[in-house]
Amino acid sequence: MEQQCKIGGESLRNRNSVNEDIISELPEALLLQILSSVPTETVIATSVLSKRWRSLWKMVPNLKFDSYYHHTFSENVYRCLILHKAPFLESLRLKIKHKADTFDLGILIGAAFAHHVRKLVLNIQFYEDNYVRFPRVLCSCNNTLEFLIVKFCVLLDFPYRVCLASLKKLHLHFVLFNDDASVCNLLCGCPNLEDLVIYRGCYVDVETFTIVVPSLQRLTIYEDKEEERDGGFVINAPSLKYLSINTLYGLGFCLIENAPELVEAEIHDVSNITNEKILESLTSVKSISLHLSPLEIKYPTGIIFCQLLSLELCTGKIEWWNLLTRMLDSSPKLQNLKLSEPCFGSNKDCPVGWKWSQPKCVPECLLYHLESFVWTRYEWQRDDENEVATYILKNARRLKKASFSTKPIEAEEIEKLETRRVMLNELASVVRASSNSCHLVFKSE
């Protein structure tokens, strides 16, 4: 007689029945949430688990497809969209690696729009140097799409204004625009756009990238190019709250014409810009992060960051301390100061004889407002960094906490431990202007 295998006195058949019952008892909302986190092809395969699951996949609000594994990619996507029965489609992610799978792209995106898709992610990565034109007819009138991400081998050609009335977030990663007008026609057709992210590569597709969006609140610009060239950016965003500009090398200009509501800004690796209006346009911010060398960008004279409360400065740039001096002098209300060195890409080497020059007068922010001073990856063996740290501790009258973290010392450099201890003790012994209230912290990363 056939015996059933038993584990802990319980048959496998009974245990499987129990597991099926447990799955069946899960709330449908939870099941749909779980299924939304895996590829849609896998979701469809779950229909064999039980009768209840046969149609459950048709209600999953988030769909994701990858053409790498299937020769019938377009057919699978279209079939799934046709059979989909949820009242709306929360998101559709298409990752395409073969040009043959893009022939029906307009039909697939059109089917998604018919299901009132709210988020669309189009990621096209070809091994060959080809671009697929985004089906512009689909942008003639759409009232449900709220978030659009387009990546890599996609050409955006809009000879007339699009109509994406509900779009709030637009992320463009290394795509190609047909011309300057296509940029304007795309952005002008998004009257409720709040978040714009632009990643650009080494190609030159647009000479003047004009961003005129009255509703825009967040803007991120990143360029992966180190060669000097003409052209640049023009930004007119009266509602802008956050601005991040990263790695703009050798552009002709970057004009921030209208951003009076700006609160937070991050400016990293911007050099050789022929105008000096970047920093001048940021005087309304309350928080700013600067990864710049004063040798790489012009610092306009006479500007005051009258609202600035928090400043982060990168110590991995040549003559960074002189930029610090200027920012301290220009920020009378500064309360929080953070100095940090990146884990890579640091360049502190200066010609012989160059050193930090202390401010002629103690900055107002040190006398009356600075409360927090944080220095990450503090290089205790460098005289210039010791000078800056000592100066701030001696002159910041309202300082409540100063925190220094140092790089770890490798096992083969164990003799440096004692030297570091001596140097940090010397820093701790500095007579602090706020000695009665300042809490000094040292730690190693």
UniProtKB/TrEMBL annotation:
It comes from the Eukaryota. Pfam families: F-box, FBD, LRR_At5g56370. Residues 20-68 form the F-box domain. This is F-box domain-containing protein. It comes from Eutrema salsugineum (Saltwater cress). PANTHER family: EMB|CAB62440.1-RELATED, F-BOX/RNI SUPERFAMILY PROTEIN-RELATED.
